Amino acid sequence: MAYPQQTPDSEYRPTIADLTRPAGAQPRPDGPRILVQVAAALLLAAGGFTAGWFAYSAGDGTSSSPTPRAVLAESPLQDAYRSCPAQGGATVADGGRTLTINGRGSEDPSGLDAEAIVCLLDKLSVPTAVIEQMDHTRALDGRQEADWGKFHASWTYHPDDGLDLIVEWRG
Q: Which residues are paired to 154 by β-bridges?
């Protein structure tokens, strides 16, 4: 493959067009302009698709079947996180499918206090039996688990670290 001549003062770096052009073929003078036009057309098409998607997902309210709008809705974990004073001691991850709670302990003052944890558990409709299991977990018990509805929780407790809880939503 032959590359264009270099001048002594410049360093030539081949482009994709140079690498894909047949040997001996001259570059088209409008090559970059065509690439820009193609890229602009693709962006416009993508923008039209996006606008159409949002118009479709808004729905007209007459259909009884679910629309793609349901995909855009918040998960129960995201809703609980936004509804409670949990910022700083809790995180939502995995596209809204995992809620991690770091409870306050004697050596971890940055964690959530009991009131914020209770708010989150209430928003997630955690049964009393599961809350009692969490409340009676000792450091020696290791990781505990429970399921309710479409949720799975696992937690540990230590007085120094507080209650550390992971809630998974399987909706």
A: 145, 166
**Degrees, nearest 5: CA angle 22-26-29:** 125
Domain ranges of the chain: 28-69, 74-169
pLDDT tens digits, one per residue of 117-132: 999 999 999 999 999 9
Single out the residue of 5, 1, 37, 35 nearest to residue 18, CA to CA: 1
Residue type, 67: T
pTM, rounded to two decimals: 0.58
